[in-house]
Design a protein that fits this description.
This protein is mainly β and 182 residues long. The chain has two helices and twelve strands. The strands form three sheets. Strands 1, 4, 5, 6, 9 and 10 form a six-stranded antiparallel beta sheet that branches.
Length: 182
């Protein structure tokens, strides 16, 4: 099951607060409402959460996703002002869950409770090769420890093909998915 540490990290990053153990206990309930799948808005892909579904007998699944986050180009320089840009990441969707935000709290100053719909994704450290006439992405099959993101950052389901010790990313939403041969 999902631990509170990655949720606390998400809250700290998103709301610019320090999340102590006491505050984490106050903001993060012991059990969270979960979903097994979601559809990307505007008729997009139907994706599944691996922590909720077993793999199909044929190994086909809709568990891997592309998501886009604001990334600081200068994160390695602690005293520099942030310089954000949108960067795409790939990973296995593990959990989809609702995080209630209590009213009058560090993350919700309003009088009414609110909720966030979040995802826990095991990130794939990808390498992008542009030696070809187009960019291709691959990873070595290992997945990271995971991060919590807003579900609105998930852009699409992606495929993957194992070739030797590499897993090639098949992103049908890329520019190549819309090629027209004349």
């Amino acid at each position: 099951m999902l631990r509170s540490q990655p949720i606390g990290k998400y809250l700290a990053t998103t709301f610019g607060i320090q999340v102590s153990k006491r505050l984490a206990k106050e903001l993060i309930p012991e059990s969270l409402r979960q979903w097994g799948r979601m559809r990307i808005k505007d008729g997009g892909d139907l994706i599944q959460a691996r922590g909720y579904h077993k793999l199909r007998w044929d190994g086909c699944d809709a568990l891997f996703v592309r998501y886009k986050l604001a990334t600081d180009r200068l994160a390695h320089l602690p005293n520099a002002d942030p310089d954000f840009y949108g960067k795409s990441y790939y990973g296995q969707l593990k959990y989809l869950f609702e995080l209630p935000l209590p009213p009058q709290s560090a993350v919700n100053p309003e009088d009414e409770p609110k909720s966030l719909i979040l995802a826990f994704i095991l990130e794939a450290e990808t390498t992008v090769d542009d030696d070809y006439s187009y960019e291709v992405a691959w990873y070595d099959g290992s997945l990271g420890s995971g991060e919590v993101v807003d579900t609105q950052t998930i852009q699409c389901a992606i495929g993957q093909i194992k070739d030797g010790d590499r897993w090639w990313i098949i992103d049908k939403s890329s520019d190549l998915a819309h090629l027209e041969f004349v």
